[in-house]
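User: Before I run my own analysis I want an independent prediction to cross-check against. Here's the chain; please return only the structure tokens and, at the end, one sentence I can use as a sanity check.
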Amino acid sequence: MEETNKLELTPELFEKLDDSQKNAEKISYESKTYLQDAWSRFKQNKLALVGLGFLVVLLLCCIILPMVLPYTYDGQDMANRNAAPSMAHIMGTDKFGRDIFVRILFGGRISLTVGFTAALISLCVGVTYGGIAGYAGGKVDMVMMRIVDAMYSIPDMLYVILITVVFEASFWSILLGICISSWMGMARQVRTQVMTLKEQEFSLAAFVIGASKKRILFKHLIINSMGPIIVSFTLLVPSAIFYEATLGFLGIGLSAPQASWGTLANEARALMTAQPLQVIWPVLFICLTMLALNFIGDGLGDALDPKKK
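Assistant: Structure tokens:
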């Protein structure tokens, strides 16, 4: 028995591994943050990259080019009315001799500002409201969602039209009208996501270890709903642009000489048969912007969804 124990403890039976061999089976990978990982997955979506590139170029053109071009958005040249596209005027001139390209860029400033600002406000309000309703549940949820249902019974466009009529057409009244109605869809979607996720293991584990309700809601539940939320946000932007353009096309948008893409289309409507290009230009920019934002939304939905990591 003693000989067997001595044999088992003989030093020659054991060899100390070299440091280079200790991690031979370790799978090495590059450490990435959440945003770095999301960007790497976003780049794999070619359409999303195209949409992002178009939107960045459009924003830069709307900001920079009006400052360097020799024309202004309200400068009239009655001797050069309704001119065809040329080297002097890339998109031609309107019925007052104003350069259409410069007015498109100025209109882009207003339309894009309305779109992104309204979407951002709706995102903050909708996520907070829907998250609280979904996490609280019970009577709190019932009361909060009945308020949303009552507001949903009124058409969205009616809110916008009523507010612009009461407070007169301006940037702020249009923004207020769009925000009042656009956050409700976001709130419903976030509520549904939170109610589903709050019963899962990671949420219960956070509660057991003592995390506060606020931390569970915003650090766990809403973060795990980020994919659908971002997609909804990118869809809110073109929706807000469309509402503003519709108001401008109906003649209750911004007052002249200010111009958005909608008001430009409305101004050119009377010349649709004689000068169809004047209508096509603003409509084309609206369509391309909406298409780019939809592509970006699809890409961000896949990139920011933790479940697809």
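Sanity check: The CA atoms of residues 120 and 233 lie 8 Å apart.
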